[in-house]
Amino acid sequence: MKKCIVVTLLSLLTLVPFSGSAYAHGVVGKRFIPTTIAVDDPFPSDEMDLLTVDRESKNKEGRETSVGFEFSKRLTPDFAIGIGWQYLFEEPAGERRTSGAGNPEFSLKYSLLRSPDHEGILSVGFNAEVGGIGLARVAERISTFTPSLFFGKGLGDLPDSLNYLKPLAITGSLGVSIPSHRRTVTTTINEDGDIEQDTERHPTTIPYGIAITYSIPYLQSFVKDMGIGAPFDRLFPVVEFNFETPVSGPDARRTTAFANPGLLWAGRYVQVIIFRVKMSG
Question: According to a count of CB atoms within 10 Å of the terminal CB, is the N or C end of the chain lower?
Answer without folding.
Answer: N
